Amino acid sequence: MNIRRSAAILAVTAVAVLGTGSVPVTAFADDSSPSASPSQSIPRGLYGSADPTYDGVWRQSLALLAQDTVGVKPAVVAVDWLVGQQCDSGAFAAYRADASAKCDGKTPVDTNSTAAAVQALAALGGHDGEVGRAVRWLKGAQNEDGGWGYQPGGASDANSTSVVIGAFVAVGDEPAEQKKGEHSPYEALRALSVPCDEDGGGAFAFQPDKKGGLLANADATAAAVLGGLGKGFVAKAGKDDARTAAECVGGDDLSPEDAARNGALYLTEALAKDGYLKSSLPGAEDQPDHGNTADAVVALAAAGQKDSTAKPLAWLEKNSVPWAAGAGPAAYAQLILAAHATGTDPRDFGGTDLVKKLNATGPAPEVPNRSTAADADEKGDEKGKDDGSVFGVWWIVGTCLVAGIGVGFLLSGRTKKQQP
Questions:
Q1: Residue 311 falls in which region: left (phi positive, over 0), alpha (psi -120 to 50) or beta
Q2: Per-chain mean pLDDT for the chain
Q3: What pLDDT is attached to residue 340?
Q4: Of 81, 137, 144, 327, which shows the fewest CB atoms inside 10 Å?
Q5: pLDDT tens-place string over residues 139-188
Q6: Where are the domains of the chain?
Q7: Do the Cβ atoms of 355 and 346 come closer than 8 Å?
Q8: Class of the 8-403 domain?
Q9: Which residue has the higher pLDDT, 223 or 27?
Q10: Rounded to an integer, what distance in angstroms lies between the CA atom of residue 258 and that of residue 249?
Q11: Share of the chain above pLDDT 90, in %
Q12: For every residue of the chain, which 3-state class applies, written as one string?
């Protein structure tokens, strides 16, 4: 619950340089990305102060969704900015600097930005036309295997498929009924579930490797657990399910729910030692991945494994606020959604009011709710130090080009590099 942000331009750059057709994958590091260049001003209404080229729609969608979840009514100008990013086709790109210009065949629209915007606008209400066009576009971009890639025509991946499932659920459509041929999104996810008797059994792979193998990926697993359960970014704690804590369930007739429970078991075991997930970016394998850990907390809570969230949630409360301060609005949103899923007060998250911090990165809310009276005073400070992105954009550009990785969605901005 990349979650999550869009990086279509990075993906296009990677393809052009490498001469490959690699499917875009969102990579994300916990180091800061640069602020917007002096020649580029941040649009009025947009959350965050960093260059929005690669994540404008993504971070805006998460920010608005998190505010709505905690009872904050976002500023009209913030909602209007997101609506204005939509193409006539219904799709969204990661960011359009000139939203008055018509989208054409060169506009890098993508499934992740579109599905995130659907979830946000559906929650806010009053945008049925825009949401309807976006959902129709998503349905038209479905692959033959029932899933979605980051961009139309790209190979299906667990993260993109899951965020689109979340969009369908947000508008009341049944994902199982959205089929291309005979295949539903749940079948696409099941095909990416690592068999129980293999290394990383129970987890999900982002995509099959070049030999068709499935390598466990914690980021893809957190996303696919929510997708398999028919959940979007905003999830409440599910009913306790002892089966998840007991054993991995196999079989050719594996249900979406059982596959999701298997994924939750994998996440529980991955978090057991340190209480956090580690980055799988080259050179940063020993570093904590705050965003992925937050997404895993949401996934575990939704799967009815609240006990398994206690240790990572405590770790996030102690360690994640400095990360979020540097990473920007999407990071605050991820933490708010993790708090919401576990019944934790996001206004007292390890002593920090996450809602106030998020509000301060963008235009003042219409209805700020309690604990936000000082938002305007903090706004300048927060806008000055946040980077608006959870992903360490420019560091990732180099990494992805060298490694041959595409760049795209994170249910929250997480690494899609296959990890053992």
A1: alpha
A2: 83
A3: 97
A4: 144
A5: 999 999 999 999 999 999 999 999 999 999 999 999 999 999 899 999 99
A6: 8-403
A7: yes
A8: mainly alpha
A9: 223
A10: 7
A11: 70
A12: CCCCCCCHHHHHHHHHHHCCCCCCCCCCCCCCCCECCCCCCCCCCCCCCECCCCCHHHHHHHHHHHHHHCCCECCHHHHHHHHHCECCCCCEECCCCCCCCCCCCCCCEEHHHHHHHHHHHHHHCCCHHHHHHHHHHHHHCCCCCCCCCCCCCCCCCHHHHHHHHHHHHHCCCCHHHCCECCECHHHHHHCCECCCCCCCCCCECCCCCCCCCCCCCHHHHHHHHHHHCCCCCCCCCCCCCHHHHHCCCCCCCCCHHHHHHHHHHHHHHHHCCCCCCECCCCCCCCCECHHHHHHHHHHHHHCCCHHHHHHHHHHHHHHHHHHHHHHCHHHHHHHHHHHHHHCCCHHHECCECHHHHHHCCCCCCCECCCCCCCHHHHHHHHHHHCCCCCCCHHHHHHHHHHHCCCCCCCCCCCCCCCCC
User: If you search the block for the tokens 């640069």, which residue do you land on?
Assistant: 34
* Total count of residues recorded for the chain: 420
Amino acid at 356: K
Residues 315-340 have pLDDT tens digits of: 999 999 999 999 999 999 999 999 99
